[in-house]
Design goal:
By secondary structure, this protein is mainly beta. It has two domains: 174 residues, Copper type II, ascorbate-dependent monooxygenase, N-terminal domain (Jelly Rolls, Sandwich), CATH 2.60.120; 159 residues, Jelly Rolls (Sandwich). Helix content is 9%, strand content 40%. The protein has three helices and 23 strands. The strands form five sheets. Strands 1, 3, 9, 10, 12, 13, 16, 19, 22 and 23 form a ten-stranded mixed beta sheet that branches. It has a five-stranded antiparallel beta sheet with strand order 6-2-11-4-8, with no helix packed on it. Strands 15-20-17-18 form a four-stranded antiparallel beta sheet, with no helix packed on it. It starts with a helix and ends in a 6-residue tail after the last helix. Bound molecules: copper (II) ion (CU) (2 copies). One copper (II) ion (CU) binds next to loops.
Length: 354
């Protein structure tokens, strides 16, 4: 009796394994690559789009870069409702000089969100089990646009061309969890020879359970630390939990979050960029190299639909600080410092499998 039960159990286990194997989702790979472009000027940013079938939903589960740091300085993939241009390639540079003969346009025409970022020979990025970006069909991502930044063009002087890009892994099998990105950022200005805090905060008012799993920071040259928090508003003291922080001078990819935490309706998300200027002039928020930016991207999954809210921007200094929203117990030192005992370089070479 005992013996036959054992056999049955073994058989069941084998059958179970077989069944899960049979029903395994078919994963396909789509190459989104530059169509053999030839950037002529240093600091060129090119964009190339793909249109996604509006009659069918797809589920993106991984990104595999096809680039090397000698050619591409960085790559970003954007989900767009409409693309910035109907051309095969266009100039789409923030901070950029346009290449003559090629039109200039924004990355997206509307509905822009970053879904992948690559820099400095980062490895393949696999989303957590069951998590996927929903694209095509009735979703707000009808196009994916690849942006490549060519910092140096020495390589192309001999007439060679570039097909840097990303292999996108996707399936048509619905995945239980949707991935989304919330962008936190500021406007504002940084005074000469000073340290400035650029801060933003928003309360989540949608009835969803949000699981952050990765984050990315972006500034230009003046950023020293960018940090993001979940704030539980409580009386008399707010509770701050770190989502992630980074030296923005390190490769600006998505890194795993610092803490597994959950954001619900009524919670606040907050970000700070600590900027240090040795310049003699005022530096303002803007898209060129002379300007600054303060961005914290929070990538999350949810078992419901993604947040309608895609961004959380404040006016920044001198008009906005966290205190203007009545936030208290601000972790001032933590928000503006990096982990001790770990050099920037060491942090930069940590694995970034999420
Ligand atoms: Cu770059
Ligand atoms: Cu920027």
């Amino acid at each position: 009796m005992a013996r036959s039960e054992g056999v049955c159990l073994t058989l069941l286990l084998i059958l179970g394994a077989l069944a899960s194997d049979v029903s395994a989702d078919v994963v396909k790979k789509f190459p989104l690559l530059m169509p053999h472009v030839k950037p002529e000027r240093a600091e060129t940013y090119f964009c190339t789009p793909i249109r996604i079938d509006p009659t069918q939903e797809y589920y993106i589960t991984a990104f595999q870069p096809n680039a090397s740091m000698e050619t591409a300085h960085h790559m970003l993939m954007y989900g767009c409702e409409t693309p910035g241009s109907d051309k095969e390639v266009w100039n789409c540079g923030e901070m950029a000089l346009a290449q003559p003969g090629i039109i200039s346009a924004p990355v997206c025409g509307s509905g822009s969100q970053v879904i992948y970022a690559w820099a400095r020979d980062a490895p393949k990025l696999v989303l957590p089990e069951g998590v996927a970006f929903r694209v095509g069909g009735k979703t707000s991502i009808q196009y994916i646009v690849l942006q490549v930044h060519y910092a140096s063009v020495e390589k192309f002087k001999d007439g060679s061309t570039d097909d840097s890009g990303v292999f996108v892994y996707y399936t048509e099998t619905p995945q239980p969890k949707s991935a989304g990105v919330l962008l936190l950022g500021t406007g504002g200005r940084i005074n000469p020879k000073s340290v400035e805090y650029m801060e933003t905060a928003c309360t989540i008012d949608e009835n969803k359970v949000i699981h952050p799993f990765a984050f990315r920071t972006h500034t230009h040259a003046l950023g020293r630390v960018v940090s993001g928090y979940k704030v539980t508003r409580d009386s008399p003291y707010d509770r701050w939990e770190l989502i992630g922080k980074r030296d923005p001078q390190l490769p600006q990819m998505f890194y795993p979050v610092a803490n597994d935490l959950v954001i619900r309706r009524g919670d606040t998300v907050a970000a700070r960029c600590t900027m240090q200027s040795d310049r003699d002039r005022i530096t303002r928020i803007g898209s060129t190299n002379e300007d600054e930016m303060c961005n914290f991207y929070m990538m999350y999954w949810t078992e419901s639909s993604v947040l309608k809210k895609k961004s959380c921007f404040s006016l920044g200094p001198p008009f906005y600080y966290w205190t203007r929203d009545g936030l208290n117990s601000i972790p001032d030192r933590d928000a503006s410092s990096l982990p001790v005992g770990k050099s920037a370089r060491e942090q930069g070479i940590e694995s970034h499998q999420i």
